[in-house]
Amino acid sequence: MAQTPSNPIALGTIAPEFQLPAVNYNEIMSFSSCKGEKGTLVIFMCNHCPFVVHVIDEIVRIANDYRVQGLGIVAISSNDIEKYPQDAPEKMADFALENKINFPYLYDASQEVAKKYDAACTPDFYLFDNQNKLAYHGQLDDSRPGNGIPVSGSDLRNAIDAIVYNRKINPNQKPSLGCNIKWKTA
Q1: Which of 41, 98, 135, 143 qualifies as a FRET site for 6, CA 20 to 30 Å off?
Q2: 112-119: long-range contacts at Cβ-Cβ below 8 A with a sequence spacing of 24 or more?
Q3: What is the pLDDT of residue 186?
Q4: Above 60 in pLDDT, residue 1?
Q5: 179 pLDDT exceeds 60?
Q6: Bigger pLDDT: 185 vs 2
Q7: Domains and CATH numbers, the chain
Q8: Element (H, E) at 89
Q9: Is 185 exposed, middle or buried (0-12, 13-18, 19+ CB in 10 A)?
């Protein structure tokens, strides 16, 4: 299991816009249509990554806990489905249903959105404030598959709390760690 950290991105970066199909909503969605009143969480993830599978229940809990507080949540899969057919859109819809994902799960077939965000791994978390400025780009918590640390979502939850309750976010953010995005080769 290869471990790839998220790429460092300057806080304050404006969220790139996108228009992608939501496999669990059967419509085209954009950053603007997924945006929350208090902020927006964009997660790059996929179905088969052991790091995502390890934390998916906590991701769903976070979505359920914070959506009512004005946080928009959207997940995007950008993997090459030729080499990784388990990440194909129909399998994404199944994954969303099985895991009770009730936020948009989008498919980035061209991988252009992942490139715009400079996404590197799954899961890769981008938390934007209500001005669409990047406020947090770090890990969910210290738990990893097999390390024995319970999944808590503490790092991401602290950042979301800061956005929701207008507090300062710690600028020292540990990068997320996961499987690399499966890029298409020419």
Answers
A1: 98
A2: 113/16, 113/18, 113/20, 113/76, 113/78, 114/44, 114/76, 114/78, 114/181, 116/16, 116/18, 117/9, 117/16, 117/42, 117/44, 118/7, 118/9, 119/6, 119/7, 119/44, 119/76, 119/78, 119/181
A3: 66
A4: no
A5: yes
A6: 185
A7: 4-180 (3.40.30.10)
A8: helix 89-98
A9: exposed
Angstrom distance (rounded) from CA 93 to CA 130: 29
- pTM here? 0.97
Per residue in 97-116, pLDDT (tens digit) is: 999 999 999 999 999 999 99
Collect contacts of 164-171 with beta carbons under 8 A, ≥24 apart.
164/38, 164/39, 164/66, 164/69, 164/70, 164/71, 169/135, 169/136, 171/11
pLDDT tens-digit readout, 60-105: 999 999 999 999 999 999 999 999 999 999 999 999 999 999 999 9
* Count of helices and strands (H, E) across the chain: 5, 10
Take residue 28 and report the two structure tokens written for it. 């085209």
Q: Report, in angstroms and rounded to the nearest whole number, the Rg of the chain calculated over CA atoms.
A: 15
**For residues 181 and 119, is the Cβ–Cβ distance under 8 A?**
yes
C-alpha dist (Å) from residue 91 to 96, 120, 158: 9, 22, 32
Note the pLDDT of residue 105.
Answer: 98
